[in-house]
Amino acid sequence: MASKTRRSFLSGLGVAASAAGATFAAGSTAAHAQTATDSRWQAARHPQDDWFDELPGKHRLFFDTTKPDALEDAIQFAGNFYTANKGDYGLENAELAVIIGMRHRSAPFAFNDAIWAKYGVTLAKRAEWTDPKSTDAPKVNPFTPVAAAAPARARGLAGAMKLGVQFAVCNLSTHGIAGLIANATGGKADDIYKELAANLIDKARLVPAGIVAVNRAQERGYSITGS
Predict the structure, then answer these.
(1) CATH number assigned to the domain covering 49-225
(2) How distant, in Å, are the alpha carbons of 34, 38, 68, 109 from that of 128?
(3) What per-residue confidence (pLDDT) applies to 132?
(4) pLDDT digits 0-9 by tens, 67-85
(5) Which residue has the higher pLDDT, 97 or 29?
(6) Beta partners for 224?
(7) What is the sign of the dihedral through the CA atoms of 203, 208, 210 and 213?
(8) Which residues, including other chains, have CB under 8 Å from residue 56's CB and lie 6 or more apart?
(9) How many C-beta atoms lie closer than 10 Å to residue 30's C-beta?
(10) Distance between CA atoms of 22 and 121, rounded to whole angstroms?
(11) Residue 187 carries which DSSP code?
(12) Pairing state of beta strands 204-207 and 166-170?
């Protein structure tokens, strides 16, 4: 009888030990999985980029433009993005976060008509842009940052602004443009840079570099398109 009791006790002990081992193994696996999850790469967050998250919107889209025709396409397709989301999804403009990045040869169009009236020759040269209707240097921003009295189709910069589009302007390009203007006019690059920065089109902001903005926008959940 004693032997039978002893065998039952040892058998029960073995079951308990097996269960404890299984529990420990499961816990170890969970801990390993947790560690693996925690060690996955995550993008760093910088306060300079927090504005990306401050724009309201259920959907996020960033157009990267580096030349005039790419900017023209971005304005057109941004309009299409708003139109389709309104017509087929019932989404209002405020429910979409759309940014057009302006760098390299599209950066000159980030400045208002006053800057173009003053430095249009240099800006057009930097953009490698020629007015198809005239050989004269433009005296206003060719992408119409100010809406006409009765536009037939509001798809210029002013039309994009009305929809809610924001603009990210490359600071490195802006410094470069300031240097070109300084060389052409004999002015001081630092003073001209300040003048440019104070005369951005509406809904625009300077970002450290256009290519950095592309990276940060993607890390903040924006789809990237354009070139």
Answers:
(1) 3.40.1260.10
(2) 54, 48, 8, 12
(3) 80
(4) 999 999 999 999 999 999 9
(5) 97
(6) 62
(7) negative
(8) 94, 95, 97
(9) 10
(10) 77
(11) -
(12) parallel
Segment 93-135, tens digit of pLDDT: 999 999 999 999 999 999 999 999 999 999 999 999 988 888 8
Q: Identify any residues that bridge with 205 across adjacent strands, giving them in sequence order.
A: 168
CA atoms within 13 A on the CB side of 58: 10
φ/ψ of residue 48, rounded to 5 = -65, -20
Cα(221)–Cα(36) distance, integer angstroms:
23
pLDDT digits (tens, 9 = 90+) for 184-225: 999 999 999 999 999 999 999 999 999 999 999 999 999 999
In sequence order, what DSSP letters do the residues of 89-150 get, joined into one string?
A: H---GGGEEEEEEE-GGGGGGGB-HHHHHHHHHHHHHHHT---TT-SSPPSS-TT-SS--SS
Whether the predicted pLDDT of 65 surpasses 70: yes
Tell me the C-alpha distance between 52 and 60, whole Å.
Answer: 9
